[in-house]
Specification:
- The complex is a heterodimer of chains A (247) and B (280).
- Chain A has 247 residues and is of the alpha+beta class.
- Chain A has two domains: 100 residues, Beta-grasp domain (Ubiquitin-like (UB roll)); 137 residues, Orthogonal Bundle (Fumarate Reductase Iron-sulfur Protein, Chain B, domain 2).
- Helix content of chain A is 36%, strand content 15%.
- In chain A, strand 6 and strand 7 form a beta hairpin.
- The radius of gyration of chain A is 22 Å and the shape is elongated.
- Chain A starts with a strand and ends with a helix.
- In chain B, the strands form two sheets. In chain B, strands 1-2 form a two-stranded antiparallel sheet. In chain B, strands 3-4 form a two-stranded antiparallel sheet.
- Chain B is mainly alpha-helical and 280 residues long.
- In chain B, a hairpin with a 2-residue loop joins strand 1 and strand 2.
- Chain B contains nine helices and four strands; from the N terminus they run H-E-E-H-H-H-H-E-E-H-H-H-H.
- Classes of the chains: A alpha+beta (247), B mainly alpha (280).
C-alpha cells in the first residue's frame, strides 16, 4: 500500500498538539499496527493503551478521523490514506497522556447500581432453573467489552458533562442486563429515573452506531428501560391498575 | 470528575474532527420532515378535494364531521365559531401527528436535524444547557403509548377506507360501498381495482407496519415482562414485534411518504388534474 501520514495527539491534560508521522503501511494493517510501527520507529514515548488486538479487550478505544472506534478493529484500507489520518484520545474522559484516557469514572459509577439479587433457589440443592427464551435478552448485553466508546460518543457525557447525574449507555446496558435477568428480583426503576438520569438520553442512537460488539444499545436496552420507567412513574392508567390490584 | 483537555474538545455548532459528510443525514431529515410538515399543514387547512368517490384522503380519515359522503356523523355544526378554521383533518390530525412526534425513532432524528442536539454523533452542539427528556417540556414524550393507542384505532379506520377503495359505483362517481358499510347502501357497487385502491391499501399496510413495530407496542405486548416464558402468547407477540421493530426506521419513512402520496393522489383526482386509472 505504500506510505501513509498520521496526525497523532501528543500531550497531557494541560498541553498538547497534533504531531505528524509518515510510515510504511501494508495490506491487512489496522490503525493500531500503524501506531505500533510509529512507536517502534519514530516515537518510543508515545502512550497508547492496548492488549488483545482482537477487538475483545476494549483497551484501544480512540477517535480515528473524528469517529470513536477501536484502533485494532479499524482497517487502514477502509480509510482515505491520501489525506492524513487523525488519531485522538477519547474526548469524554480526562486525558492521561497522548492516546490514553482515565476511564475510572465508569467503574465508580457502576458501583452505584444495585447489584444482582436472585430470587430464592428453585431446587433444594440451591440451584435455579432458567429457560433460554428468558435469558435471550440479557445475553446480548453480556457481549459488552467495556471499551466505553458508547460513553465517549454520548453527548450527555461528552458535550454536557453530566457525570454526576447520568450514568451513560454502557451502564444502562448493565442495568438492563440486571433488570431483564429472569432470576433478578431487585427494583432499580427509581434509581434509573432519579440517580441514573435515564431521562437525559434523547435517543440519538450514537451509542449503538459506535458499539464494536454491535449491541443494539438504544433499542434493546435504553428504550425498554425508559418504557419500564414510564410504567412506574408516568403512566396514570398503569398506576391505576396497580392500585386496583393492590386493593 | 476532572475535565478532558479543552484543546481536544472544540466547542460550537458543527465543530468536529470527523472528515465524512456527517451533515448529510440530518440535512436530509430536515428537508424531508419540513416538506412533510408544510404539505400536511396546507392539506389539512384546505377542507376541499379530500375525497374522490370511494377514495378518502388519509389526512381526513376518519372524517368525524364534514361534507363528504364518508363522514361519520354529519356536516360542520352550525355552532362552530366563525373565527375558528374548520376542516375535518384538523379534528383528527393531532393524534397521528403526536404519535410521530413522540415516536422514539423520530425523536432521535429531529433532535439532530432541528435542534442540533447533537447535530450528529461526535459533533459539537451550539448550546451548553441541557435537560433532555429529564425536564419539561420534553418529559411529556413519556406519554407516547397513549398516542399509540389512538394510532391503532386510526389503523382500523384506514383499513376500512382501503376496503372501500375496492368498491366502485356502477354509474360514475357517487357510491362506493357494499351494503352495510356505507350511509348510501342503495347505490349499486361492484368490486374493482384502481390505482387509488392500491395506493390506499399500500398506505394502510405501511402505516400498520410502522404502528405495530413501535417500541412502546413491543414493551406492552411482552417487553415489560421479566419472564417471557410464563406467557407463551406474549412471547410470540414480543418475538414478532421485535422482528418488525428492527425495521422501525424504514417503516417510519416509508409510511410518511405513503400517507403524503395517498393524499396527493386523491387530491389530484378530486381536483380533476388526473384521472384514476382503473384496471377493471
Amino acid at each position: 500500500m505504500g506510505k501513509a501520514t498520521f496526525q497523532i495527539w501528543r500531550g497531557d491534560a494541560t498541553n498538547g498538539r497534533f504531531e505528524e508521522y509518515t510510515t510504511d503501511v501494508g495490506d491487512g494493517m489496522v490503525v493500531l499496527d500503524a501506531v505500533h510501527l510509529i512507536q517502534a520507529e519514530q516515537a518510543p514515548d508515545l502512550a497508547v493503551r492496548w492488549n488483545c488486538k482482537a477487538g475483545k479487550c476494549g483497551s484501544c478505544s480512540a477517535e480515528v478521523n473524528g469517529k470513536p472506534r477501536l484502533m485494532c478493529m479499524t482497517r487502514l484500507d477502509d480509510l482515505d490514506l491520501t489525506r492524513p489520518v487523525r488519531i485522538e484520545p477519547m474526548k469524554a474522559f480526562p486525558l492521561v497522556r497522548d492516546l490514553v484516557t482515565d476511564v475510572s469514572w465508569n467503574y465508580a459509577a457502576k458501583k452505584k447500581i444495585k447489584p444482582f439479587k436472585p430470587r430464592k433457589p428453585d431446587a433444594a440443592d440451591g440451584t435455579w432453573r432458567m429457560l433460554q427464551e428468558d435469558i435471550d435478552r440479557p445475553q446480548e448485553f453480556r457481549k459488552c467489552i467495556e471499551c466505553f466508546l458508547c460513553q465517549n460518543v454520548c453527548h450527555v457525557l461528552r458535550e454536557h458533562e453530566k457525570f454526576d447525574e447520568f450514568i451513560g449507555p454502557r451502564l444502562f446496558v448493565y442495568s438492563a442486563a440486571l433488570e431483564m435477568h429472569p432470576l433478578d428480583v431487585e427494583n432499580r426503576l427509581s434509581d434509573l429515573k432519579k440517580q441514573d438520569g435515564i431521562g437525559y438520553c434523547n435517543i440519538t442512537k450514537c451509542c449503538t452506531v459506535v458499539c464494536p460488539e454491535h449491541i443494539t444499545i438504544t433499542d434493546n436496552a435504553i428504550i425498554p428501560l425508559k418504557e419500564r420507567v414510564v410504567d412506574a412513574f408516568y403512566d396514570p392508567i398503569a398506576r391505576l391498575f396497580r392500585f386496583a390490584r393492590s386493593e | 470528575m476532572a475535565k478532558s483537555s479543552v484543546a481536544l474538545k472544540p466547542r460550537g455548532l458543527g465543530k468536529t474532527s470527523r472528515t465524512d459528510a456527517w451533515w448529510a443525514t440530518p440535512l436530509a431529515t430536515f428537508i424531508v420532515l419540513s416538506t412533510f410538515l408544510v404539505y400536511a399543514t396546507w392539506a389539512a387547512f384546505q377542507n376541499a378535494d379530500y375525497w374522490y368517490g370511494n377514495y378518502l384522503s388519509p389526512f381526513y380519515s376518519p372524517e368525524v364531521l364534514g361534507q363528504s359522503p364518508h363522514r361519520l356523523f354529519g356536516p360542520k355544526p352550525e355552532w362552530w365559531p366563525g373565527w375558528l378554521p374548520f376542516s375535518p383533518a384538523l379534528l383528527i390530525l393531532p393524534f397521528p401527528a403526536l404519535f410521530r412526534f413522540t415516536c422514539y425513532y423520530y425523536r432521535g432524528a429531529y433532535y439532530k436535524a432541528f435542534w442540533a442536539d447533537p447535530p450528529a454523533c461526535a459533533v459539537s452542539e451550539p448550546r451548553k444547557g441541557y435537560t433532555g427528556e429529564h425536564g419539561f417540556p420534553l418529559i411529556m414524550q413519556n406519554i407516547h403509548r397513549y398516542f399509540l393507542y389512538a394510532a391503532i384505532i386510526f389503523i382500523l379506520f384506514l383499513l376500512h377506507d382501503a376496503w372501500k377503495g375496492f368498491w366502485f359505483a356502477e354509474e360514475g362517481i357517487g357510491g362506493y360501498s357494499p351494503k352495510g358499510l356505507h350511509p348510501f347502501p342503495d347505490v349499486p357497487v361492484r368490486f374493482g381495482i384502481g390505482v387509488g385502491s392500491l395506493i390506499l391499501l399500500t398506505n394502510v399496510v405501511l402505516l400498520g407496519l410502522y404502528t405495530f413495530s413501535c417500541h412502546s407496542f413491543r414493551h406492552l405486548v411482552g417487553g415489560r415482562r421479566k419472564l417471557l416464558s410464563a406467557k407463551p402468547m406474549s412471547l410470540r407477540c414480543y418475538t414478532c414485534v421485535s422482528g418488525l421493530n428492527k425495521k422501525h426506521m424504514l417503516f417510519a419513512w416509508c409510511s410518511l411518504f405513503s400517507v403524503m402520496i395517498a393524499d396527493l393522489y386523491v387530491r389530484l383526482c378530486a381536483a380533476g388534474v388526473i384521472r384514476d386509472f382503473r384496471f377493471f
